[in-house]
Amino acid sequence: MVRSYATTDIGRKRQLNQDFIYLSEVPVGNLPNVFIVADGMGGHNAGDFASRYAVETVVEEIEASFEKNPVRILGRAIERANTLIRRRAREDISCSGMGTTMVIATCIGRYLEVANVGDSRLYIVNDRIRQVTKDHSLVEEMVRMGGIDRASARNHPDKNIITRAIGARDYVEADFFNLELQMGDMVLLCSDGLTNMMDDETIHRILKGGGSLKDRVEELVRVANQNGGKDNISVIVIEPLADEVEHD
Question: What is the mean pLDDT of residues 153-157?
Fold first, then answer.
C-alpha cells in the first residue's frame, strides 16, 4: 500500500500559481500509481497553462499506453507533452516561450521509477536525505564543472535559469532513475519554491518529525513561506512501503 499527501501553495510573492501537481495512488494505465510535480514558466498565464497542459497530457498518454516498460511509458508521455506544448506555443502568440519542468515517480513494488526534466526535484528521505534527480540548470552545470561550489550555488543570481524544460526545444531529453526502496523510505517530489527557501537538513528534520503525513507536508509549506515564500511551493510526499512499516 502506497500512502501519500500533496499540496501546492501560491507562496507570498507571486500573483499566480504556475505549479501543477497530480497524484494517483491507484493504477493509471499500466503503472500502479503516478505522482507528478510541474513548475511552469512563461509570461502572463502561459506558465500556468504549460504546467497543467503538460501534466494532463502525460497522464492521458500513460492511460493510453500499451507499453509495460515504465521508462518507455514515461519517456513517450513526456515527448508527447513536449510536442503539444511546442505546437500550442506556435499557434498562440500568448503562449510563445512557455515551458515547464516536470518530475514524475511511480512506485512498483519495492522499486521507484523516476523521470525528470528541469529543476523540480525528487528526494529519498530516511536516516538521511538524498537528492536523486539532478537539476537541469545553469548553476548546476557550473557546480558540475567546478566553476562554483555547492554553497555558492544556493544563492547564485542565475539560479532560476534552467537548461532543459518541456516545451523549450523540439526535442526533450529526460533523465530516468530506478531505485530499490528500503523500509522507512519517504519519497519527496517538490518544486524549487520549496528547496530555494530551506536547506536539505531542514526538510529532513520536518519530514522525520512527529505528526501525520499531512501535518509534515503542511509544515514544509509553512516554513518555506515563513522564510520568504518567493515562489510557488509544491510538495508531494509518498510513503511507498507504508503497510510493511505498519506490520513489521
Answer: 70
Residue-by-residue DSSP string for 112-179: EEEEEESS-EEEEESSSEEE-S---BHHHHHHHTTSS-HHHHHT-TTTT-BS--BTTSSS---EEEEE
Query: Cα separation of 90 and 96, whole Å?
Result: 7
What CATH code is assigned to 3-247? Answer: 3.60.40.10
Cell readout for 98 is 512557455
Q: Is 71:176 a contact under the CB 8 Å cutoff? A: yes
Q: What does the pLDDT average to over 214-229?
A: 98
Q: What is the pLDDT of residues 76-102, one digit of tens each?
A: 999 999 999 999 999 998 888 899 999
Q: How far apart are CA 127 and CA 133, in angstroms?
A: 19
**For residues 102 and 118, is the Cβ–Cβ distance under 8 A?**
yes
Quote the CA–CA distance of 93 and 16 in Å, as a whole number: 20
* Domain ranges within the chain, ordered by starting residue: 3-247
